[in-house]
Structures are given as C-alpha cells and as structure tokens.
Amino acid sequence: MSSARFPDRPRVDAREKVLGQARYAADVAVPNLLYAMQVPATIARGRVTALSTEAAMRVPGVVRVLTAEDFPPPPAGGPGGPPPPPTITADIAYRGQPVALVVAESLEAAIEGAEAMRPGYAPAAFVATIEDKNAKTEPVKPTTAGDAPTIMARAVTRHEAEYVSPAQHHNPIEMLSTTAVWEGGVLTVYEGTQGSNMVKGALMRTLRLTPEQVVVKSPQVGGGFGQKGGPQRQTALVARAAMLTGRPVKLVVPRGQIFHNATFRPKNRHRIEIGADAGGRMVAVRYDADQQQSRQGQFPPDYHESPPMMYGIADYHGTAANIRIDTQAPGYMRAPTPHPSSFAFDSAVDELAVKLGVDPLDFRLKHRALRDPIDDKPFSTCFLNECLVEGAKRFGWEGRPLAPGKMVRRDGTQVGWGVGCGAYPAIVHPTIATLRVGADGKTRFAAAGHEMGQGIRSTIEQVLLRELAIDPAGLEIAIGDTSVAPQHVTAGSWGTASAVTAAEGAATKLKAAMVELLAGRTPPGDLHRQLAGVRRPSVQVEVTTVGPGQGEMQVAALRKGGMAVSGPAYPQFTSFSYIAHFVEVHVEPRTRRIRVPRVVSIADCGRVISPRTAASQVRGGVVWGISACLREATEVDPRYGGWLNNDLADYVVAVNADIGEIDVGFVDRPDDLFNTLGAKGLGEVAMTGCAAAIANAVYHATGKRLREMPFRVEALL
Ligand code: MOS
After folding, report:
1. Residue 122 Cα, ligand 1 centroid: separation in angstroms?
2. pTM
C-alpha cells in the first residue's frame, strides 16, 4: 500500500467517447430486431375497460400487441431488494402508465401502432399534489439525538422557517432503453443500468426465470443519476415481448414517457428550527420533513441523513413523512435527500448567522463536528473545516461586507457572496474480483461496477497501474455485466471505495502469486514479459473484499444479486464525505435575472483516486446544483395529474451559458479507517450544499431570502 497521491491521467474512455465510438446498450447491433413502443394511459387513475388491438394490428409492420393478459402476476416474495416494478395491468395508478406494448418490424410502425390504440377507461377520483387536502400523510420513525425539546426551550436565539424543493426529473443524455434477446432458453438484456444485478433479479421474479436464464449487460451508461439505479418499468415488458415473439426486441423510451413513467425526485418540504445559546453556538435542531410519495412507493424520506453530521449539534429531533398521492413511484436522483436537505439546513444555518450578526464562514468554522450524534460514534475523518478554509482562501472571502446589498455595480447589478456546505454518507459494498495478467500483454480485471460517466474504470486503472507493471493499452476492465462477476448496484457514491479496494487487493495477491511463480528468478521487463520469460501464459487471482464490519452475510447477499451495502455508521466509527461551496451571484437590475459567474468548491472525499474524473464529478455536481436551484421543476396540473413540462423545451435545465468559472479543489487526505486506500465517496456530495450557497449569496446580494426552489426572476421582482 502506498499513501502517495495519485497522478493526473486522462479518463480511460476519453478517446472513444470523444470519437463517438463508446458503445451504449442501445447501440448494440442485434440481427432480426423488432422495435417496441409503449401505449401510455391518458387518465390519472382508474381502470382499462376496453383494449382493442385491431387498429394497431392493421398498421403494416406491427407484429404483436402485448396487454395485461400477457403478464401473469409475479409470485409473491423472492430474492432481496425492493419488489420489481409492475408490468402491464388493467388498474391505472398514474397518468402515463403503460397499458400496452406494440411490437413491430420498424420503429415507425411501432409508433404508428401505439398511436392507433384507443383504450377505454373507467376513470376514478385521484390526488395529484401534496397540497391536496385528500393527500395522506404517513410518518416514518423519527431521527433523534439527545434532548432537543429541552435544549431548544433554553436557547437564546432561534431561527425557524420552511424550505421547499420541487419535483424534478433526471434528464440524462442516454434515455432509458432495453434490448432483449431470448435464445436457447436464455434471456440476454442490454440496458444502460447502474444495477445489472437488480435488473436481473426483477426479470427473474417477474418472468419466473432462474439465475442461469438471465444475463444483463450494461456496457456504458450515458448518465444514471439514480434513475437507472433500479429496474424501471419498461424492462420486463420488452423482455416478455422477446420471449413471446421469439425475436430480439428493442425499446428506447421517448423522453416524454420517461417523465411520466420512470422514477423522479419527489417534491419535499422542510420546517426547520435551530436554537443557539448565549455564546452564539447552535445547540438544538427541530426539523420536520415530508415528501411526495406514490401509493405503493418505497423511496425513503431520509432527510436526516446528513444535517446532523455537519456542525456538531448534539441535540437533534427530526421527523419525516410520506405524503401518498396518485403518481408513479419517486426514486433516487443525485444526492437524493442530501441535496434538498442541505439546501434547507444550510440556508437555515445562514439565516441564524445573519440573526446573530456574525460572518457565515466564521459561524460554520466554530462548529467543527467530531462525532455522529445519532449513532454516537466518532467520525473516521471529517475535513469540512479544511474545505471551508481552503475555499475561502481561493474565493477571496476576506473583506466580504457582513450586511446584504452592499456590493452594487455601477449598472445596478447586485453582487452577493454565499457559502454552503453538504455531507454525504461514505458507503461500501463487498466485491468479488478476478485479475488475470497474460504473457500476451493483456490484463483483465472483472468485478462489480457500472460506468455511468463518473469514471469508475479510470479509478480502477489508476490503482492497477500504480501497483502492477502492466501495459495500460492491454488492460480490460470488465464491469456492469452479470456474466463476468457478481454485480452490485453502483449508486450512493459507493462505487469507487468498493472497486478500488478490490483492485488493490487483487494486485497485492497477484504480486504474491508472481513471487511464488518466479521462485527467485528475475526475468527482465514488465509482468507480461516476465510471464513470457518463464513460459507461463497467464496468472490469475480472485479476491473478495468487504467494508468495515462486513462479513459472510454481505458477501452472500452480493452473490445473490441483492443489496450488500454498509455504512455510514460502522462498528467503530461513522464516515461521511464533505464539501464547501463558495458562490458569487449577480442579480441584474431590471430583469432580476440571477447569474452565477464563479464558484469555488472544495471537497473532502478522502484520498482522491482519479484527479481528472474527480474534478469532473464536482463540476457536474455544481452545474446540477445551479440548475436545481435556479431552473428545474416538474409541474403538475392538479385537474389532470401527470406532468405538464415533459420535454427539454419546457423542463428547463442549466445550459453552458448559465455556467461560469468553477474552481475545484480537494483536501485529498486519506481516511485510513475506512479502507486501505483511504477513499470515501464523491459523486453525490459534490452537489450537496451548492443550492444553499446560491440562496445565501442571493440573500447577500439583495437582502431577500428565497426558500423555495427554483429561484426564478419573479421571486426577486
Ligand atoms: Mo445515486 S442517486 O444513489 O445513483
């Protein structure tokens, strides 16, 4: 093990991506292919009463129309993980739910066939928004540390407010797609997914297949962000179509249907009270959160994951609730709960600093967190204050006027500086990896992991190249494929920590195997030449690595394709990653448009494994933070349910012109308790706290506190 920093190297797939040669699931060429299109329900709730397939079947090229009759209900129970999404049912739970799947010789025929369908419905009453008085609130278990009510009652200064985050939809460039091949009793599915194991498990359960009968391949993912973390609804439909027609079937879900049918970030609300003592120290938090939820949805309202881990407040009382309405199931979207909770909580912290008349940076610095108050454990590492100090220096925070509205340019533009922080759990799963080095110059590393642009292959390469004298040009990193190694979902920012410890463990074992093989001989050259020198075609090792406190049980869960994560609370400590963002906003005098010309973001993700992809992750998180705070919201017309702005013209995301300079830095200090390389996670923490930094900067520019995202011009008029 080396404790040195890793060098800056290009990402492994940079060249093929730039050349457009990287192959995504829908690019896989399959002969004799049929094309599918879903028919979405046009009511918000009720039942399909009539479904004639005649008109669709008359369209030239249409081969078959699948309806609810083609989907026997799956058996109850089954392997671990959440229940798979339903297939086609006559009961309609939300607008846009598929009522049929049209399969045709061409995409055009499939679309025409789908449009020819005229289902009959018996509509039922529905609840479209969480503001509806018929929405059903369902509390979950509170998150508590100490005695917040007593300490709050003694507080000298208090701040209380409500913060709101809208429903938002992922819009990765690669849309959801499934290509299914049924051949010789084996179903092979090509799908850009973060969880090939989850997709496999869902297909096994829904279609009553054995583990040997399903292979899922996810070669590259063109943006996952959580929407591709679990199986989505189209997968089993397409697989069933392939099984029934005996031909390969492909569906690329149109963007509008993704809005209505795939998981999304639910609307959520945060009522927060923070109390400070006579010395201006935050001593107690009361925090009630709730979120939009579907009738059967399981996405947990974990809004108290991160806020207690940031400022060393010992007394905390957090409640959370689901508000069940008639929508599709919400799900994970980058920094799923820590993005909105950090917007709310770090806005509230800022408001309290304003009330106390102290600098918001100094205020945060005097609240260094040392322990996890919820699980009562020390942190393995927490370098949030180091992030704040370095960020303030790079940003030039010194000399910032305390009062708002003091930095006004000659043209009337109001300038504001804000700081915001975030935290995200450091989680890990076990990995079973094989590593083979050949005399032919080739090396193959196979393990769990999915490449969704974040750079997991680049982090694995960094470790293998540092540990082993191998030819990088001959290195194959086989991941995202249930046939190469037991797969685990790649999400929750646990990919790097899980994959690189396995890569390091495998490299160590391979070096030992080489020592044994060479038995004192010292042939010249790299490992490939050494193997050739002793006439050995290859050497192969297998390792199983686990996270702190993990054992056989988690390894067995991994082998079965289930969830096997642990953390952020481990037997001896709690682990989180941290970030501090410093933001400058300009508010234009007449249009009141908010611009973000510069951001400085410093992250504590433990040891940085791939400086290039790590910096890219943080820039992406900041771009998304800006977009989520100033642009993105999916709107509902309560009269009809469903989503109104279901395309990229009306669902507004930040574009290049909205993004200024983003300066990214890292503390880059290893967390030696967490794993041998000291790497925590980065993908999601990158986004946390960014929206709060913008809100705090907007207040500093204008004196106006905005508590509901997105902040649009009308909020400042
Ligand atoms: Mo992430 S939202 O856990 O893929």
Report:
1. 37
2. 0.97
